[in-house]
Amino acid sequence: MRITRKRRITILLFSILLIGISTLFNVRIGHGMVLEANDIKLNPEDFGNMNVSKPYLKDIKLISHAMGEIDGHYYTNSLEAFLNSYYSKGSRVFEVDFELTLEGILVARHDWRLTYAEHLRQTPETPIDNKPWTYDYFMRQSINKKYTPLDINGIIQLLIFYPDITIVTDTKHLDPANMKKQFSQIIKCAHYDPAILNRIIPQIYNQEMLTTVNNIYKFENIIYTLYSSPDNNEQVLNFIKDNVKQIKAVTIPTSRVNRNFIEKLHNLNVYVYTHPIWNIEKLIYFYEMGVDGFYSATISKQEMDGIVSLFTRFKNN
């Protein structure tokens, strides 16, 4: 589906109007309900007793990047970012960055760089760049002086407390030993419960990682994300052909998106995402190219649904 530049501008203007109306009337998802960190108190017996919403990638147009945005702050992976994205932006799918502490405990964190700690207004535990913090120190450090850090138990609790959400992992590590530590903790904290694990979608970064993850647990849905993949487009397509029953989507950096590659992936019945998207204009540009969904901390589900509706309307005219 190709949209002319004139129509793309029209869609953009309609989208801006939609955003303005949303802001004017302070539209909120969930009847304005807001939860605080201490509201999430769950018991082990909650496992396996949930009315869960099973994710279908074809329905996922928007993934909240790094748990979304809170008060203009990004990459926090914090509880408050999740709550803001869930209730104010209508998000139901959340990408979470995962890192290992010094002891090897899995926590929601982008990385251990000193510059990242500075970005989050935190005092590093160590002056050594990229050295992991201890678990206790990490959990005591508020993010941007007021937001709540999360460990893997906190993430699993969110999956229990909110049965309509899905988590997309960004575990980053490429060495099999750390991959095993990360995914072993995920499935153990979920008590091996399919009701939880079926709503966790791992991202893999190379072909070998699929085998490593499958040896730990065979997740129903996998996303092959290409931001650190060594594969060229043809190698990606061949890999997908061999594993299409499990790999349901490919995430392509914006710099690598092109119509030909998207069409070939669609011919394999694979969904295509791109990231990161920070504004409506870029989203419209890539959606018109054929991208199915987007990782974004700024775009709301209402805005995304409005754009899809407008594209459908123009397509049918």
Provide a compact summary of the structure:
38% of the residues lie in helices and 14% in strands. With 317 residues, the chain is an alpha/beta fold. It is globular, with a radius of gyration of 20 Å.
Number of helices: 12
CATH topology assignment: TIM Barrel
> What separation lies between the terminal Cα atoms?
13 Å
Order of helices and strands: HEHEEHHHEHHEHEHEHEHEH
The biggest sheet amounts to:
9 strands, mixed
**Total number of beta strands:** 9
Strand order of the largest sheet: 1-9-8-7-6-5-4-2-3
Q: Report the top-level CATH class.
A: Alpha Beta
Shape: globular
How many structural domains?
1
- Uncertain parts: 15-52
Supply the CATH superfamily name.
Phosphatidylinositol (PI) phosphodiesterase
Using only C-alpha atoms, the radius of gyration works out to 20 Å
Which bin fits the share of residues in helices?
25-40%
**What number is the mean pLDDT?**
87
Percent range for β-strand residues: 5-15%
Structural classification: alpha/beta
Walkthrough of the structure:
- Helix 9 links the parallel strand 6 and strand 7.
- A nine-stranded mixed sheet has the order 1-9-8-7-6-5-4-2-3.
- The protein is globular and about 55 Å long.
- With 317 residues, it is α/β, with parallel strands linked by helices.
- Mean pLDDT is 87; it is low at 15-52.
- It has helices spanning 5-24, 79-87, 114-119, 135-140, 152-161, 176-189, 194-197, 207-214, 233-242, 259-267, 280-289, 301-316; strands spanning 62-64, 93-100, 106-108, 166-170, 200-204, 222-225, 247-253, 271-275, 293-296.
